[in-house]
Amino acid sequence: MKKFSYFFLTVIVMCCNISLVISEGKYESVQKLQTKSSTKEFLLSSSNLKILAANEVFIYEFFKQICNDQNLNQSEQFMNPILRYLEDYETSSGLILGTTVDVVQIVIAHPHLAFRMLFRFVKDLLEIQNISNQLIGQEFWDELEQEVVVIPHWPVQADLEEGVEALLRVTFIYDLELDKFANGYIKEVFTGFGLTRRHCIYIGNYARESTNYYALAVEWLELAKSLVPEKTMAGINDGELDILIISTVIKHDTAFEATKDYANTFFYRKILSGSDRKYEYKGFVWRMKQRTRDFQTWRGRPEPQYHEINFWGLCSGVGDLQTDFEKSQLHCWYETKKHPYWIINPLKIEELSQEPQVLQIYNVLSAAKCDSVIVTAEPFLIPSRVVDYKGGTMRSKTRTSFNTWLPEEDFPQSMEIAKITELITGLNVVESNASEFLQLASYNFGGHYHYHLDAINDPSERHFQVKGDRIATFMLYLSDVEIGGQTAFVNARATAQPIKGSAVFWYNLDETGSIDKNTFHGACPVILGGPKWVANKWIRYNKQFSTKRCESRISSKSELMNGLRY
């Protein structure tokens, strides 16, 4: 077999061999860990996705050479899974080969391409490996791994399931039309890359067996029936698919009947209703989902029980949730007085909400500086965690991102951002114990963070007594996102768009030092154009007595930038 040059891939892997592990909330010094990879969750990690996408170009060439080898006489049992792999690659990622665009960047930014790549690694290549080991011997696969593949860890079933969860999350929160989504439309953007029948069957069956997305399970399987099977895909026939759909409908109705409230993952009523209990394919009587009905009925309400509904609406951009009066009170202006540089390149400031007061500030960092911070942080990413009921931390489906912490003493970029934050907000940021280390977070396709408060409100937290609570948040967007990825403030019913180089600023505590519960916010799932990168600078309370005055109200626009909340 021909041996390819993998210099640039080797560099990527070498960069991952030494990584920083900085524990969130613990603030230890940087620790070096010799490892090839800290996680196997390829869909969520941008660096792992890049490695997969770059390697797959050569895996494809490897198997293409086998198919073109006239001297190779192998059975259909051996060749069929290879042909199936090639067909799927050539109708997805392979369409980019030979163009001027970067295959790796396009694949990781597109939900269908990223998912299909993961599906091929976990399903198709595993099948090829098993059959080749059985018919030819281990030597065939050893040659592939030695001459072609530079992957620290191969993705496994759990990684594919993370991908399915991401697809289900996106289609649920954004209430997407599945037939358009599977055919390459992401909202109103046609991307040219879709999903096939076997992908839809797999997604629908996973939703049926492993989640409570009952309505989506029915819809994905119905969609699969409407799609033409792939040429090399044996799969299940229409009759078997009909049986699977009916059993999924019955499962929906059984769970619906057992549920005391109208859960938003169902259709708004049972499907097999009426005396004949007859299922009609794509019938319209029961077609509306409870999630859609809830949003149409309750959107825009400020009460806590409607936070979830507002989160859906803010992420999907369906309808104005702020009243006309609320929007009439908001302002936009140029800031030129805080620094001489801004006289010639003023900060553009937009007030997104007044209760709570949320500002989006544009042109805070240049594109080059944003890129520099990302390059620095990416090798050190670890899975994000949330606080558990015991006061420890755990992985959670409510926060599907990767993050790391960059201490100012080790990373000049962090100190620069701390100084910019202090200059813009007027708060004490740079002094010891005035703020936390800079946190970097990366969200790939489907990556999100359920709405939450940034305030800690826990006196037992390690630094709470010395530093106090998080008085304010200064969040920088380090990348653009084509669709999705907004920051949704569910009480304020406002969203901040992820615009590269801009920052969002708000106070987490009121003038008395109590938590402002109007600051509930969440990260909407990324759909297209990721990964989304953000940098969070959390400013602590105890060091602000000399900078933060207690005022009854803001008296002028300029005071919005002087660290004044009221």
Low-confidence stretches: 1-40, 552-558, 560-566
Give the N-terminus to C-terminus distance in angstroms.
71 Å
Q: Describe the sheet with the most strands.
A: 9 strands, antiparallel
Overall mean pLDDT? 83
Work out the radius of gyration. Answer: 26 Å
- Please bin the fraction of helical residues: 25-40%
Summarize the helices and strands and which ones pair or pack.
Elements: H1 7-17, E1 18-21, E2 31-34, H2 46-68, H3 76-90, H4 103-109, H5 111-135, H6 138-147, H7 157-173, H8 178-182, E3 185-186, E4 189-190, H9 197-210, H10 214-226, H11 238-258, H12 290-298, H13 307-316, H14 324-328, E5 332-335, H15 341-344, E6 347-354, E7 357-362, H16 367-377, E8 382-383, E9 386-387, E10 393-394, E11 402-406, H17 412-425, E12 438-443, E13 449-452, H18 464-467, E14 470-477, E15 483-484, E16 487-489, E17 494-496, E18 503-507, E19 521-523, E20 526-528, E21 532-540
Antiparallel strand pairs: 1-2, 3-4, 5-6, 6-7, 7-18, 8-11, 9-10, 11-12, 12-21, 13-19, 14-18, 14-21, 15-20, 16-17, 16-19
Task: Describe it.
The chain is 39% helix and 15% strand. It has helices at residues 7-17, 46-68, 76-90, 103-109, 111-135, 138-147, 157-173, 178-182, 197-210, 214-226, 238-258, 290-298, 307-316, 324-328, 341-344, 367-377, 412-425, 464-467; strands at 18-21, 31-34, 185-186, 189-190, 332-335, 347-354, 357-362, 382-383, 386-387, 393-394, 402-406, 438-443, 449-452, 470-477, 483-484, 487-489, 494-496, 503-507, 521-523, 526-528, 532-540. The protein has a 9-stranded antiparallel β-sheet, with helices on one face. A hairpin with a 4-residue loop joins strand 16 and strand 17 (494-496). Helix 12 (290-298) packs across helix 13. Residues 1-40, 552-558 and 560-566 have low confidence and may be disordered.
